[in-house]
Amino acid sequence: MFLFGAIAGASMFQFLYAERLENLMKANELLSLHNEQLLQDIEILRNTNKAERKKRELVIEEIEATVEEPKPNAFIEAALIRKLKSDLAPLKGKKVEQFSDMHVILHELLERREYVIDGKVVEVKLRSVIISRILQLFVTVRVKNENP
Predict the structure, then answer these.
(1) pTM (2 decimals)?
(2) Among 4, 25, 60, 144, whose CB has the most other CB atoms within 10 angstroms?
């Protein structure tokens, strides 16, 4: 009788805990699948974050030049702006972070720069510069003399 009770008790114990063990294994599998899904979501978010950071990096897309007063005639002003844009065209597509000291470099580059436009020597002096998506130059112009 004792032996029969022990066997019956052991089988009952095994039956109850086997069912519980099976439920825990199913829950573990479900959590593993959920964990894999969350890891995939994290990877997608990382890639999206990288793409957004690349979009947020400011790149010089355009160059604008503004001639301050006293302005020369409209033809000289337009030709001068065109020449300034063509001289600074290699800066397009560069990241703004690369040009943290660009103010000093541009001032040295355009310090008393001279162009010959329509037979006249035109001296350009950079007054100020704004470096962002659009590189904005503010210059003063002085027409020196006419070439013979």
Answers:
(1) 0.56
(2) 60
